[in-house]
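Think of the structure tokens as a kind of shorthand, similar to the way a musician reads notation: each symbol stands for something richer, in this case the local conformation of the backbone. In the example below we present two proteins back to back. Begin with the first one, reading the sequence and then the tokens, and try to describe in your own words what changes along the chain.
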Amino acid sequence: MPRRSAALLTVLALALTGCGARVADDPAGAGTAGRETAGGRPGHRPVTVENCGVRKTYDHPPRRVVTNDVGITEIMFALGLADRMAGYVMPDDKGRVDAVPWKAAYGRVPWLSKKTLTRELALDARADLVFAGWNYGFGEDNGLTPASLEKLGIDTYVLTESCRHGADGGARGVMPPLEALYTDLTNLGKIFGVEDRAAALVKRYRRQIAEAADRAAAHRPSVFLYDDGRDKPLTAGRYAGPHDIITKAGGVNAMADLKDSWTTVGWETVVERDPDVIVINDYGDTSAAQKKAFLLSYPPLAHVSAIKHRRIHVMDYAELVESPRNPAAVGALARYLRGVRAGG
């Protein structure tokens, strides 16, 4: 029997026995996690959390989690849950992990694919939960959604930064980006029975960010986040990680009025808002050096303050998406912005 078929029969059998998460009919079960470890010792009670506006109940701590992308993977690592993972999916260009605190975890957990997350991959890994996000693995266009996985008996958890809002469901973001990080840490702490560990992380990250904010410059330069794109730049609205990182670091997000996370704008908008600083998101086939060369040579930007004064700061992708690297990123950007005079 092909491996995929065998895996499919296994997960369907598990689904028939009532394994996994369910949409909660009764919210009274919220916050009922015991103090067990992630191994789910006898006595662990079902846990209900709210994820992207949906209340879901997890009957036991997952044991074979598949994650998509670097930030999501490192949330699991930061919570000490590497032993609960069946593997992760992450392209090479987002895999700069040699100097991170979780290097050893990356060495232990299988790197399942450097391409895209698929239902087949989750089945082959015998996943009991997939932790991904909208446009971070989940999407109707690729047929991978929480609903499609749950039909196969595989539970899901959706990255809060990626939660969708609005009538058409296209825009993403339902809360400030750093609150999204704290929400996911807290929810996952309950799901895996490691609430104390999650609470300690949230407390430490809040303190780290507050300390960086206290040292931020008072002049608050405006900052434009440049992800990529030539015809139209991809940037960060008020619900993407860079918004809170810029704000807590003492800057002003030039695109704060965009009620979305990662989205495109026109170059004319960038010119009109005349940012003091441009932050480059370093990832992808186009290097940070190539992105910088383009910005400095693109004629419409010639009179923008950041270009005239060559104030271009490079940050890593994993610092800018929702991840445990966000607090340190606030401190790093705050140090850079202290040397920038707004409007000068």
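Once you have a description of the first chain, move to the second and do the same.
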Amino acid sequence: MYLTPQRILLAGATGLTGEHLLDRLLNEPTVECVLAPSRKPLAEHPNLLNPVGPLEQLLPQLSGNFDTAFCCLGSTLKEAGSQEAFRAVDHDLVLQFARRARELGVRHLLVISSLGASSDSSIFYCRVKGEMEDALRAQNWPQLTIVRPSQLLGTRMEVRPVERLTAPLSYLLPGKYRGISACTLARALWRLALEDDKGTRVIESDDLRRLGK
């Protein structure tokens, strides 16, 4: 059985995956409206609502009723500048967005996590992602989809030297460890949004590549 989301809430629309997903949503004839708060203005579109400013400040101001929410928020330790700043975005802000989405009527939340996410991980990045996943589960969503992509591939505005060096090699890795393009991930997210599977599910990167073909 499939549901067709009509009114969409999107966080992280200026990121690598978020911009691909936004483009897809705005070109879907079944999508009536996309509300995408962002720090910098997005290109205008008749079906796009784009309040501009820090997300944590915009969240209480958001209004309306929405069917589905996508959370494409994500940073790196280098970008954030500290472990505390990284957690503030990849854990705290994700949970704030999720709570506000639920208040706005959203019943299906799709969130980008990470390969290897686990609250028991000895790796700080993976541990924070795992703790975020656990906290979202505790919110008791009617439908929660957690996706765990491997290394995201695509052209970013900011330069990430390590990713630039490792990206070609990631194509050679097996199964869920192989890199996935942001465009493929965006297509997979949209397909998953159309599926009416109650409860929580976790989708690993190899399945995301298959869904996004």
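Compare your description with these statements about the second chain. Helices lie at 16-26, 55-58, 77-80, 83-103, 124-137, 161-170, 182-193, 205-211.
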